[in-house]
Amino acid sequence: MEDFERARVDAYFRRITTRFATARRPSAVLITHLLADRPLFVAAAARLSTVAAVLPKPKSINSRALQEIIQMAPCDTLDRKRLAQPDELISYLETRAAGQDLVLLDVGGYFAPALEDACARFSGRVLGVVEDTENGLRRYLEAGKLPCPVFSVARSPLKDPEDYLVGQSVVFSAEALLRGRGDILHGRRACVIGFGKIGSSVARLLHAKHLQVTVYDTDAVRMTQALAQGFRTASSSTDALAGAGVVICATGNLALRADDFARLAN
Known about the structure:
44% helix
């Protein structure tokens, strides 16, 4: 991360934390992608709370960022199975934040299976959960009545610009992969599975690059939206995949199975 960009992001976080800082400082346990810029986010969280622990998602750990985080807060191994067990989760929270008011920052619904027990049995008080992803939020909502507030970043209007940029990044990276193979993106038939905020962005950008785009989504309303925006839609994933030369899955749900690949173009 460039020094200028790092300074700009840090200044932004300082403005936000100065505005919302209060005398009440709960503890916080953070699950996060540990990308190059994430120490700035953790530092910002530390200005509003006592960061009891950081649990990096294992497939996105930047080694330099990890070293910075270790200097700021305890850094533990993330294990979904462990956090899903009520006794294991409560034991862990007691180790890191016994008797404290506690906020859980999540990326993927890791605390969802045992949240009710944690709220009932933790020696402190679980004030709430902040969940970054739509897929993670669904894990919490599947539990029915929530035992504490769960705030969704994914459904915030503030995330719409990011989702559009994520769509741009996906298409850019797909094209880069193809060019690395000595091929081009233009002229292919494309299938986009999922027409949410990111999927719709991907579909529009592929169309702008002159691809024939077919959309499939299990949600009938989203399929209608795709049709209204001029995209070809398919009544099943099987039909959507038939003959596709590029497939982009923009959903947190299961999208492709092994036998689906036989339906694709060579």
